[in-house]
Amino acid sequence: MPAEFLRVHPETPEERKIQHIVKTLRDGGVIIYPTDTVYGLGCDIHNVRAVERIARIKGIKPQKNDFSFICYDLSHIADYARVGNQAFKVMKRLLPGPFTFILDASNRVPKILHTNKKTVGIRIPNHAIPRQIVKELGNPIITTSIKDDDDIIEYPTDPEEIFERFQHMVDLVVDGGYGGNIASTIVNATTDDLEIVRQGLGELDI
Fold first, then answer.
1. At residue 65, does pLDDT exceed 80?
2. 142 contacts 31 by C-beta, under 8 angstroms
């Protein structure tokens, strides 16, 4: 059965539609949704089977996953990561925004993801749809970018084209308009000397 295609207003998401997306996640569904950078593939972090499905879609082993968490705000982060004072100050200034901060994982993360991961990526995108989803869900969702097979355009931007490609792999594709094609800037924030791991859309100004 093909996925559902759901148009959601990118700035003022309809509550009924957000609730429907949240129900899909609680039922173990895998979704594709917009962020402030590129479209992402996600599920509820507490659903192991859904996490395994995403790993299969990405062609990686679940134990080797490099997924990040989308949180609603900074108050969520302490549950899943340990944040130093310097990192917290920078994150407070730059988030929500197009950044992924790599932090030391709390003891909960390996249990959630069934991995030996010592770090976790944290995202608070400047986009109403994913933030409203996690707010209503009550916990973060897994996020990983969907990539294009095209050597020139690394990330697909048209939700209808994304649907055509992934409709038999996921349960729901959220159309929040055209996405970007530049990923988030990844920052290693495990020490006070913050380091850019990958330069993306966000400009790190410490």
1. no
2. no
